[in-house]
Amino acid sequence: MKIKTTFLSVLLLGAVMSCTKQNQITDQSNDDPKKNTVLADAPLTWQEHWFEHNQLLNRVFNDTRVAVYYDNDVDRSITWPSTYLAQVWNYTKKTYGSFGTESQLYVILHTAKYSGGHPSTYLDGSHDYRNVIDCGSSSTTAWTAGTGNDLDLTTHEVGHIVEGASKNVHGSPAFNIWHDSKWMEMYIYDVYLGLGRTADAQRWYNLVLGGSDPYPRANTHWFKDWWYPLYTQYGKTAVLNKYFTLLAANFPKHTVSNGVTNISEYTRDLSFGEFVHFWSGAAGADLKQLALTAFGNLDEQGNDWTVQLEQAKATFPNVTYPGSTPTTVTLTVSKENSGGAGANEGSLKMIDNNLASKFFVAGYDTGFWAQLTYPSVVILKGYALTSGNDAPDRDPKSWKLMGSNNGSTFTQLDVRTNESFPSRNQTKSYSFTNTTAYKYYRLYVTANNGSVDFQLSEWSVNQ
């Protein structure tokens, strides 16, 4: 399946190009043997047999990192791709993991034809099961500069390999949301920084910062209002990789044949609410407000994605972060606020995603516990507690977290003693090792800081 899209970063430079992206496994019919061919190791020549491409390619460079091919019209004095794209590919694999057993990136350049570019991955037979970027230009002097748009376009296509084959799963469930170029804005910026190309990173930043798009609403500033705050505030390169890790671990997949073997492939696209949910999981923070500021509350089809977000929390409970507790999770406590769970300081304030509210109970005793009950079992590996707005002596000091699948027999998962919250409304996060899914998670608060009362602003859990 071939999808034509527009490379918007190039449009910003004033040159119209197109990027052809493979989102689904291409037809592997046996009546076309070329589609079922696994290419031998970097042959000296390679006959194109995809889309409108029909050039005989010649290998001009080959090592363990990249194999570079030119058609007959590309200037043979051009050597920057073998160095630069090897660096990009090595950085990409270091960041996101391997892309198949083949170590090389296959780079194809055309002059005076095939304006734009397209990728293919080792999971797809269309380009002989190789990680490939195929870039062309209408210019008769294409690729001679090795700067600016030459770097941007080739790096852009490597970014499609990342979104289309990370963690050994085929497909890009977010493509319908970020289209051809929005993920690339962030990927390219990170690559330039990762390679120490600070001038190119600044050039790219200046280029995309003022860009706007009509999706999901008119005048959307993807880089300025979404990617850059997400990247700089929530872990930079690590948050990008974690998104793909969470997606591969949790989003629905099935097994299909790609013509030579069975592979894992995503079964559907993300909804916008799921998109925000998975990026929040990657960030370890609730990104709902950031997404509302950047995109408004409607997806490209006019649906309220905040409703989708609540559903995503219930559908993907292993994607967790402070504020990820879905409305389908039940909270119970061993002793309730005198006004009830829904009172101004009732127990539900512990999971309302609002650090300014709190749960308060008079007459604290060392047997106090709070419990989350999930509709189905879920693996949790961390949690966070937020202190109240006043009276530090009411803060939890010692506690243990337990898991159960019957609500009566509990296994200890984490224990803390003599903890402190020096500041008011301070969030402290804790992680533990756990590979077992539980339906019930119970937090026993075995000591507070000496008050006869107890309070807690927020209890959130995460993966």
Reconstruct the topology from this structure.
Blueprint: E1 2-6, H1 8-12, E2 18-22, E3 45-47, E4 56-62, E5 66-70, H2 80-96, E6 105-109, E7 113-120, E8 132-137, H3 149-165, E9 169-170, H4 175-178, H5 182-194, H6 198-209, H7 222-233, H8 237-250, E10 253-257, E11 262-266, H9 272-283, H10 288-295, H11 305-315, E12 330-333, E13 359-361, E14 369-378, E15 382-386, E16 396-404, E17 411-416, E18 427-431, E19 438-448, E20 454-456, E21 458-462
Parallel strand pairs: 5-6, 6-8, 9-11
Antiparallel strand pairs: 1-2, 3-4, 4-5, 7-8, 10-11, 12-14, 13-20, 14-19, 15-18, 15-21, 16-17, 16-19
Helix pairs in contact: 2-3, 3-5, 5-6, 5-7, 7-10, 8-9, 9-11
Textual characterization of the structure:
The chain has 463 residues and is α+β, with helices and mostly antiparallel strands. It has two domains: 2-315, Neutral Protease Domain 2 (Neutral Protease, domain 2, Orthogonal Bundle), CATH 1.10.390.10; 330-462, Sandwich (Jelly Rolls), CATH 2.60.120.260. Helix content is 27%, strand content 25%. It has eleven helices and 21 strands. It has a six-stranded mixed β-sheet with strand order 3-4-5-6-8-7. Strands 12-14-19-16-17 form a five-stranded antiparallel β-sheet, with no helix packed on it. Strand 3 (45-47) and strand 4 (56-62) form a beta hairpin. The two termini are 35 Å apart. Mean pLDDT is 89; it is low at 1-18 and 20-36.
